[in-house]
Records
---
Amino acid sequence: MTVNQDITKTNWNLATKIAFRFFCVYFFLHIFPFPLSYLETLLGNNPFSFYTNGMQQLSVWVGKNVLGINYEITIGFNGSGDTTSNYIVHFIIAVMSLIIMVIWSIIDFKRQNYDKVLLYFRAFIRYYVASILFVYGFGKVIPLQFSELNNFDLIKTFGDQSPMGLMWNFMEYSDTYTRFSGFAEVIAGALLLFRKTVVFGAIVVIGVMFNVFMMNMSYDIPGKLYSGLITMMGLFLLSPDIKRILNFFILNKTVYPKTILPYFSNSKYQKTVLIFKVLFIGFLIYNNLGGAIKNQEKWGKKAPKPALYGIYEVEEFIQNNDTLPPLATDSIRWKRIIVDKWYSGIQTMDEKIIRFKEETDTISKTLKLTSNTDSTDVMSFYFKQKDSLFYFETIYKGDTLKIKTEKKPREDFLLINRGFHWISERPFNR
């Protein structure tokens, strides 16, 4: 294998060499085992899971014995990327990178530059960032990450939303904006896949991912560490061209075209690399776009809805033949029955929501609600329908319950029925 010899002509200063050594190790330890992690897609398991698991176990040990953390450090995926374990892993990788950088600098102090290493490591970073942007981008182009406003979102008061819930609902409301943000991520990733567009791609990556980072910071979304890391990688990809960018955009100086040399001087190796590139790009598109389309039918808007999907306003609540008045402070009388895709619930008059798992049998006309916290806590209703009115009856914990409800269409909510208007004679701000 013949590496192109024309790429080693510069002399790096000491600070540049030290910075490169550190970030080379730092990013590699964060990225590994990419791209070998895709073997899980092909084999059904990840043979390199030992690295991730080992880092998590090490984070627990370091947290207890080095950092003196006295509360339980949980590990494993739970939807948050900002757990105590995640912060400790970042700390461990930073320390390891610093140590390796020092050793590397001592051993390799005479080297004039790392042009060859930079050429290939930059490609490694480019493809990693592109693969991540494809995951999140296609998950928005095919609305999946932000699916749709659920029935609980529609009845929840504005002040009772969490900052993350507020931002999530903002994105879920509009497929148009969700797709726009998804295309921005996909286009940024696509631009990184070709060296002629990598500078433009890196600029777009920084803009897109820094915006994500700021949203995570501003709305208490537990993805701050990872979005910050991807933003740093965008800066790393852009760093070799910083002077050219400053000359063009700021200093109004002449910028000449940059010579892009092939990875190998041997044409056979160039063709081999091209084949692998085409196959890998095809795999990324198929895996992410195909996966998003498939998962939309499982988790997204096309996922099946329960037979009783909807919001049921309780008009009459009879307990043991006593009709309970709709007092706002009552913690026993129900205000609403909510049936949604992933969980259902009961809202009492004092606005408390109790969540249940729902099973509906349309043949026997039964609704079964099982408590999320106690599988032995079960309510089995018989129901009947007359137009928009639904009647539920059950015996629960020795009490006979008869409940008259009216199903409220989602379209009755202003947020749903307002829609989009090209012409607005005055602002419609409610």
Note: Strands lie at 310-319, 322-323, 334-339, 344-348, 353-361, 366-371, 378-386, 389-396, 399-408.
---
Amino acid sequence: MIKVGIIGGAGYTAGELLRVLAGHPETDVAFVHSTSNAGNSIDSVHKDLVGDIEGDFTDQLNFDVDVLFICSGHGHSRTFVEGNDIPAGVKIIDLSNEYRLKADADGFVYGLPELNLGAIKKATKIANPGCFATAIQLGILPLAANGELNEDVHVNAITGSTGAGQNPSKTSHFSWRNNNVSIYKAFSHQHLGEINQSIQQLQSDYGHEVKFLPVRGNFPRGIFASLYTKCTLSEEEVIEMYREFYKDAAFVHVLDYAPDMKQVVNTNKCLIHVEKHGDTVLVTSCIDNLVKGASGQAVQNMNLMFGLDQKTGLQLKSVGF
């Protein structure tokens, strides 16, 4: 069994991680760390886990584990890693944005399996991708891999309120978010750095921009991204390119119809649809921001690091209609 420790256990990503691990046949959760909830039962905070996860949060660290998931949120992971004597044999999967860029990586491998599969299998430290970054990259990487990104890429993507984290803010509480839609961080979202880095990894001569409009949605979870750019290939050629790029991908499915977001909610899937309109290719990409966009992808990376099948513990079902 893989012994798991979780740091920052009270937030949405940790709760989702525990939900996934509760059904994982090869893991044992050794401890869930939270200074703010130490002594409280885990299911008193993550109430959907009643009957699935037993035990209490602890403020004590225990490095007698095989892997640490750091779910502390942005701005805390590096302090934790550098401030603790973590044994070299303990693998680390960080869900924050602190190690995603190569300039800041300090030995962390960028954990997008569809891009860095071989490196992830050999890694001891993983920087888990951002949720928007996952949906957008999976939507455009086949074009980059084939040298077919030759213009700006325009992206409009809407995300659920859980993407803002568990701590309440003026744009996440119910009375503001419900029956409301708004744009934020237009053209300047923090995930653009890792998106551009991955494009450059596949198509080093790409000199244009990803023009990204992030949108707050009035639903809890899910990301629905629409991407378009100029492309001289036929629709059939582009679709075949995507099918070839993802032929061995465990969770990416290229559909012959436009997907609905509910098809991916509660799953680790990414559903993609491609169509041409004149000289423009339109790509739809949708994921669950907490699963494929965070904790599910983290478990997928753990599986790869420990030599397991990628799908182990991730046979999750959508909410249906």
Note: The CA atoms of residues 114 and 249 lie 6 Å apart.
---
Amino acid sequence: MDELGRPDIRLPQTLTSPNTRVLGARPPANAHPEDGFRRIGEGPAAVRLPAFWAGHGIGPYRPYDEQGRTFAWFQAYPLEMVPPLDEESFVGDFAWFGDIGDPLDHRTAVTDPIASDLARDGLSLPADFLALITRANLHRCLDREGGGAWTDVTGPLPSPVDPADRMVLFFRDQQSCIMWYLYLHHSGQAAVVCSDRDFTVEPGLRYGPDGEIVLPRREIFWTAPSVEIFAYRFLAEARLTLAIHEKQRAGELDPELLAYLAHYVPSSSSEGCGRMPR
């Protein structure tokens, strides 16, 4: 029996990069030291942010156990806990997705004004962001498999940590418990960050128990080095969760998904198979 949802069963042999974009047990050549932070930009002007992956649980393989910070049904998982990806293989074209379709006029009507505003600050929208938001087959692909989260594009917004930087909201949880933003550093670097604060609205005054004014939280968290990598990981986890719910067999999984899931099943042999203890 190799039914998903049974982490005690042996998984089929999994392939790793270059056959998939999941690196398996091998750390990436440009691996970051795991100190819980990531930088956007270079030198003294770089923004240093606390970092984690905010995702759903993946059945019994990576449970939603509320051991980390939670945002409704999303939980903060340390970066060393999620499968390492071959980041250099993501070049902004969504080749792993297949046919991304042509740009949609009603979506470029959303991104064009944002791009114009950013250009005045010497910034631009990355190609992968434009593809995700405007291409016919990519548009709302996260919504279709996101468990109620939905695409919502607004910007540019001032960064709460550096007035020279900008952010663009592009995805939010259905109850706005967590929102994901494209972060554009004034050096030209970009990344995906998340927050439980909606920076598209002005916060109202809040008061503490003694009537004092409480300043709104300005926390943002690094969550992916690019929009394409964010989309890849989000979709991989959503598809795995559905496969587990539908009791799909592991041997029927796409090799990319099988390699991703194998990260959560410690290896028990040199053949690349894995077994979790009961």
Note: Residues 227-245 form the longest helix (19 residues).
---
Amino acid sequence: MQRSDFYYDLPPELIAQRPLAERGGARMLVLDGTEDSPRDGIFSDLPRLLRPNDLLVFNNTRVMRARLFGQKATGGRVEILIERLLAPDEALAHVRASKSPRSGSIIQLADGARLMLTGREGDLFRLHAVEATFADIMSRQGHIPLPPYIQRPDDEADDSRYQTLYASREGAVAAPTAGLHFDAPMLQRLAELGVGRAEVTLHVGAGTFQPVRVDDLDRHIMHAEWLEVSEDTCERIRLTRQSGGRIIAVGTTSVRSLETAAADGELKPFRGDSRLFIRPGYRFRIVDVMLTNFHLPESTLLMLVSAFAGHDRIMHAYHHAVAKGYRFFSYGDAMFLVRRPDA
């Protein structure tokens, strides 16, 4: 398939710029596998779509305050987005400046902290924190790295609303946004229903927002993201299968984590980088149902959900969502997708 097969026209006013007043207040478009046409619903309908013995798999990553601002010795302004922490005082980062800084140069931050550029790895710069740790620097002056399509600076509300309630392992530069809809009462209702719960970790990188730059998808190089699937989660999935329950991934990051851990045909614990590119033609091994938000046109995430629920069905559902005024992307509405039988 070609990149253009995943294009749709999105009016800018449908891109959610702020979260709703309540986490669970979103609308939810349902493709349950029984018919091609989507059904309009609300997120609070979720318990009626689940069954006892189903297993929800959440991504427990936590978003770092990864955006920093400083200046070069020449006075030029610099914006830094920490991509990955390598050690307490070492990181890989995206660095934006009017002129690309050279290895060995110093970036001065607002509170006097200093970062030294020590090299490059592809598009990323290697940074060394001088007489500090990145945890200290980010806690003092880091900003929540809102996605590029949110056209405003981060504010105090984003500190909590751009994190899931269950976020526990810091390391992401973007939230696993399907999980943002879950509040404490919803989690309690699902537990009382008999729906199980497991967690994976995938630290979402800035690459998730990078466009596909080639028309032929066979030539696309997928960005790498670090993930971990534990033995406990593998065991919970095995027990769910034995009891006849379904595996329900909360977000594309949970899908990617589980499918990576089962890449050789058997689900096993996994810890490391994944470049798994899921697109139409992929055969899913683990996930039966997916809860997700809406995704950018021509993005790898739109390709993933198309592989899961069917390209034509997904594109029809997206056009329906646009016509009905759904809210899109990170702070937007949700979709409930049942895997098509031939996927």
Note: The domain at 3-63+159-338 is CATH 3.40.1780.10 (QueA-like).
